[in-house]
C-alpha cells in the first residue's frame, strides 16, 4: 500500500494524516499536543513542534500497522503550519529564542509604528495587505527593540512551516502561501518585498536571511538522513512545498471559486478562492496567495473558541450544554444581548488592546440569551467579513462551509445560517489542513498538477443547517457593529469616567 503524509502543526497540536495515494482515502490520523499559550504573550519553542510531529507520525504509523496493513510505504510528505509566527536562527542554524506565534500581540506598538511609515495604498501594493499585529514583520521589529542582542545574532528568519520543512529536508525554503503572512512578501509579484524589512534595519542584507521561495507545485526537497532516522523512514522521500494552515485547508476542502469557508477554532477565519489578487486599501482583508497557484483572501479575527470556553465557564456548563442553551433562546428576539467578543484584543478591526463588551442586559436576561450572545459574538465578526468580501468584489456566490471546532457545535452551525441567511455545510474531510498537505504530497509523489489533485480528492459537502424565519439578522448585525465601536476602549490607556 502506497501512502502519503500530510502534517498540520497548529497552535494546539501536531496532526498527521496518512492517505492512500491511489484513492485519497484517509487511512490513519494521529495527534500530539503542543505547549499551551495564553495571549498577549504567546510563545512556543520550535523543538516542541518537532517532538510532537515525531510522536504524531509514529502514532499514525502504528494505526496503519495494527489496523490496516503491515506492508506499506510513505511516498510523499508535506507540512502545513500556523501562519505568521517568527522563528529566528543563528549562523549555526540553532533557534535563538522561543517562537512568537500569530496570536502574540506584544508587538502591536512596533507594528503600528511600522505601518505609520507607509500609507495604506503603498502597503497594499507592496505586500498585499496592511500588516496587522499578527504578521511576522511586527514581531521582528519587537525583537529589534526589546532584544537587540538576539536581533544581532539573526542569520535566518523563518515561519513555523519553513522551520519544520527544514527539519525534514535540511533546506531553508518557503512557499507563496506561507510567505503571504509575513508582511514582507508580495503575493502579486511572487517575490520578497524588502522595503518593510529595511524600515526595521536598513543596513542588514535581508535577502540572505530569508528562505528560498518555491512555487506551489515545486518539491521542497527530500527527506534527509537525519530526519529519516527520527521518523524511522528511509531517506529520499519527496517533501511537498507545504503552506500555511488556511492555504492547505482550502486544498483539503476542494475549495472552488465562489465557495466561502468560515473556520471557528482558536481564531475565527473567513476565506475564499480567487484567480486574481485582492488589494484591500482598508487593511481588513489579507490578500494572500493560496497553495495552488491562485489567491486566498483572508479575514481573520483573534477571538474564536476561547470566547465559547469563557462563557461555558461563566455559565458553569460544558460545550454541549452551552450549545443547547443557545438554541433554547427564543428564535425571534430582537432585543437580545449583543457581544463584541474582543476578549483577547482583536485583529480585525485592529484593536490589539481592546476588551469585550456585552450590551443589552436587563433584569430579564436569561442564561439562554447569554449563551446565544457568546456564539453570535464570535460569528458576527466573521459575517461582517463576508459583507466586506462582497464589497471588494470577491466571489461569494457558492457554498458556505463551517470548519474547525465550531463545526461540531449545533449552535454554531445554526446561528451562522441565521446570520447569513444561507445554508451552512460541513465537509466530510476531517483535519482539513493536514488533509490538504497530503494533497500536496500526493501531487509531488505522482507528478500531478496541484489543482488537478485537489479536485480529484475533493470531499463531499453536506448541508447541516438552514436559516430559521424570524431571526432578525440585519438588525442583530447593526446592533453588533454599534457595540463593536465602543469596544475599542483600551484596557491600559483609557478609562470610563465615573459619575461624581
TrEMBL record:
Please name the Gene3D superfamilies in this protein's record. Answer: 3.30.420.40
UniProt domain Carbohydrate kinase FGGY N-terminal: residue ranges:
4-252
| Chain segments carrying region Disordered | 26-46
Q: Record's superkingdom? A: Bacteria
Entry-linked InterPro entries: ATPase_NBD, Carb_kinase_FGGY, Carb_kinase_FGGY_CS, FGGY_C, FGGY_Carb_Kinase, FGGY_N, Xylulokinase
State the CDD domains in the record: ASKHA_NBD_FGGY_BaXK-like
Q: Which residues form the Carbohydrate kinase FGGY C-terminal domain?
A: 261-443
Question: What reaction does this catalyse?
Answer: D-xylulose + ATP = D-xylulose 5-phosphate + ADP + H(+)
Q: Which gene encodes it?
A: xylB
Q: What's the top EC group for this one?
A: transferase
Look up the EC number in the record and give it: 2.7.1.17
Assigned protein family: Belongs to the FGGY kinase family.
Q: What's the protein called, per UniProt?
A: Xylulose kinase
Keyword annotations for this protein?
Answer: ATP-binding, Carbohydrate metabolism, Kinase, Nucleotide-binding, Transferase, Xylose metabolism
GO BP, one example? D-xylose metabolic process
Instruction: Write down a Pfam family by its short name.
Output: FGGY_N
Q: Which GO terms describe its molecular function?
A: ATP binding; D-xylulokinase activity
Amino acid at each position: 500500500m502506497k501512502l502519503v503524509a500530510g502534517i498540520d502543526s497548529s497552535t494546539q497540536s501536531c496532526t498527521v494524516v496518512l492517505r492512500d495515494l491511489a484513492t485519497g482515502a484517509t487511512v490513519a490520523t494521529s495527534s500530539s499536543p503542543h505547549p499551551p499559550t495564553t495571549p498577549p504573550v504567546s510563545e512556543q519553542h520550535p523543538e516542541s513542534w518537532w517532538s510532537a510531529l515525531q510522536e504524531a507520525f509514529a502514532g499514525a504509523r502504528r494505526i496503519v500497522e495494527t489496523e490496516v496493513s503491515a506492508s506499506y510505504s510513505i511516498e510523499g510528505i508535506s507540512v502545513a503550519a500556523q501562519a505568521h509566527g517568527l522563528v529566528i536562527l543563528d549562523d549555526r542554524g540553532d533557534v535563538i529564542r522561543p517562537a512568537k506565534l500569530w496570536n502574540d500581540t506584544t508587538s502591536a506598538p512596533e507594528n503600528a509604528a511600522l505601518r505609520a511609515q507607509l500609507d495604506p495604498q503603498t502597503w497594499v501594493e507592496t505586500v498585499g495587505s496592511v500588516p496587522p499585529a499578527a504578521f511576522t514583520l511586527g514581531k521582528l521589529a519587537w525583537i529589534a527593540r526589546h532584544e537587540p542582542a538576539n536581533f544581532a545574532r539573526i542569520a535566518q528568519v523563518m515561519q513555523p512551516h519553513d522551520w519544520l520543512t527544514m527539519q525534514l529536508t535540511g533546506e531553508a525554503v518557503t512557499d507563496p502561501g506561507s510567505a503571504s503572512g509575513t508582511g514582507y512578501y508580495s503575493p502579486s509579484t511572487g517575490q520578497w518585498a524588502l522595503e518593510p524589512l529595511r524600515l526595521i534595519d536598513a543596513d542588514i542584507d535581508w535577502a540572505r536571511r530569508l528562505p528560498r521561495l518555491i512555487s506551489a507545485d515545486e518539491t521542497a526537497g527530500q527527506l534527509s538522513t537525519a530526519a529519516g532516522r527520527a521518523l524511522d523512514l528511509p531517506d529520499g522521500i519527496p517533501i511537498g512545498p507545504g503552506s500555511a494552515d488556511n492555504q492547505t485547508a482550502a486544498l483539503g476542502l476542494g475549495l472552488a471559486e465562489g465557495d466561502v469557508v468560515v473556520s471557528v477554532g482558536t481564531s475565527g477565519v473567513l476565506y475564499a478562492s480567487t484567480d486574481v489578487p485582492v488589494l484591500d486599501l482598508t487593511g481588513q482583508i489579507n490578500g494572500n496567495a493560496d497553495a495552488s497557484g491562485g489567491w486566498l483572501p483572508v479575514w481573520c479575527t483573534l477571538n474564536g473558541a476561547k470566547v465559547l470556553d469563557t462563557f461555558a465557564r461563566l455559565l458553569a456548563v460544558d460545550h454541549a450544554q452551552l450549545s443547547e442553551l443557545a438554541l433554547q433562546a427564543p428564535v425571534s428576539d430582537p432585543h437580545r444581548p449583543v457581544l463584541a467578543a474582543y476578549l483577547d484584543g482583536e485583529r480585525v478591526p485592529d484593536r490589539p488592546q481592546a476588551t469585550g463588551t456585552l450590551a443589552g442586559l436587563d433584569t430579564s436576561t436569561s442564561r439562554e440569551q447569554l449563551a446565544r450572545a457568546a456564539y453570535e459574538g464570535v460569528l458576527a465578526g466573521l459575517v461582517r467579513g463576508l459583507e466586506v468580501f462582497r464589497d471588494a468584489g470577491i466571489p461569494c456566490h457558492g457554498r458556505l462551509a463551517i470548519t474547525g471546532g465550531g463545526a461540531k457545535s449545533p449552535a454554531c452551525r445554526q446561528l451562522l445560517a441565521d446570520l447569513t441567511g444561507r445554508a451552512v455545510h460541513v465537509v466530510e474531510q476531517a483535519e482539513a489542513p493536514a488533509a490538504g498537505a497530503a494533497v500536496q504530497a500526493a501531487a509531488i509523489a505522482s507528478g500531478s498538477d496541484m489543482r488537478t489533485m485537489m479536485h480529484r480528492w475533493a470531499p463531499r459537502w453536506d448541508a447541516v443547517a438552514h436559516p430559521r424565519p424570524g431571526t432578525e439578522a440585519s438588525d442583530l448585525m447593526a446592533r453588533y457593529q454599534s457595540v463593536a465601536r465602543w469596544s475599542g476602549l483600551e484596557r491600559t490607556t483609557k478609562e470610563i469616567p465615573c459619575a461624581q
